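We were asked to recover a plausible sequence for a given structure. The inputs and outputs are reproduced exactly as logged, with field labels preserved.

PROBLEM: sequence recovery
POSITIONS: 148
GIVEN STRUCTURE:
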């Protein structure tokens, strides 16, 4: 809701993708650091082949990255740049359960060749699979006025 209690418009696909591009660069840096920290106990030796524990660790780091931003103001840095905010579709703050559902279903939205995101183009409410499943939504925030 805006300050005058009118609903904010839902975010379109192109704006979402632009924010994802911004956030992916920051997340890549975070995952790079997390991977380096993972290598410390092994003396810097890379793991042979696919290490399921490393994969799980990096997924948890990625979830922590998004969950922290989403639960502290509803915006990642990319979302802030594109004036997008995550909000609960029900009254009240977003829960950790909603954030986890959103994160997991968004992964499946990508794994299905982006169909979960493309769904917003035909959905009458412009919602993606992860919006619907987590009962959350992305809205476009108003431009900040600059006084002075």
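RECOVERED SEQUENCE:
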């Amino acid at each position: 809701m805006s300050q005058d209690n009118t609903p904010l418009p839902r975010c379109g696909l192109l704006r979402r993708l632009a924010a994802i591009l911004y956030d992916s660069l920051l997340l890549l840096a975070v995952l790079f650091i997390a991977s380096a920290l993972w290598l410390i106990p092994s003396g810097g030796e890379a793991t042979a082949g696919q290490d399921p524990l490393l994969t799980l660790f990096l997924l948890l780091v990625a979830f922590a990255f998004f969950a922290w931003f989403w639960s502290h103001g509803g915006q990642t840095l990319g979302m802030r740049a594109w004036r997008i905010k995550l909000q609960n579709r029900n009254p009240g703050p977003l829960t950790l359960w909603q954030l986890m559902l959103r994160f997991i279903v968004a992964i499946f939205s990508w794994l299905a060749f982006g169909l979960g995101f493309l769904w917003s183009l035909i959905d009458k409410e412009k919602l993606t699979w992860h919006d619907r499943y987590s009962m959350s939504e992305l809205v476009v925030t108003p431009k900040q006025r600059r006084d002075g």
